[in-house]
Amino acid sequence: MADRTPHTRETTQQLKEDLRHLSQTVEELVSATADDSRNNIKELRERAEKRLNETRARLEARGERAYHDARDTVTQQADACDRYVHDNPWTSIGIGAAVGVVVGMLIGRR
């Protein structure tokens, strides 16, 4: 898990920078519309659209990566649990029974 922390920081930093660039471009677009200079507006609008599309693509890619990482982690945890149950069947039965007793006692109190 410790090896993911730098990746998470890097991703967060990149996201902040992407949003900062996008924000700057939108601010430039807003200030350019005050001039009402058609060429300037068109150029800034194209840049804003380009940055928006780039940011959207990066966010989608990061979302896909996060989904795959989470799916892989859950799969690994499920496999580890499955191995533990197969390696220690009586311990697993004991743990399940103990949890069942506790849940039964809690339900019975109501």
UniProtKB/TrEMBL annotation:
Q: Name one GO cellular component term.
A: plasma membrane
Q: Which InterPro entries match?
A: DUF883_C, DUF883_N, YqjD/ElaB
Q: Which GO terms describe its molecular function?
A: ribosome binding
Residue ranges constituting the DUF883 domain according to the UniProt record: 13-60, 82-110
Localization terms from the record: Cell inner membrane
- Locate the coiled-coil region(s) and give their ranges: 12-65
In the bilayer, the protein is annotated as: Single-pass membrane protein
Q: Which UniProt keywords apply?
A: Cell inner membrane, Cell membrane, Coiled coil, Membrane, Transmembrane, Transmembrane helix
Where would you find the membrane-spanning parts of this chain? 90-108
Which domain of life does this protein belong to? Bacteria
Family that this chain belongs to: Belongs to the ElaB/YgaM/YqjD family.
Record-given protein name: ElaB/YqjD/DUF883 family membrane-anchored ribosome-binding protein
Q: Which organism is it from?
A: Halomonas organivorans
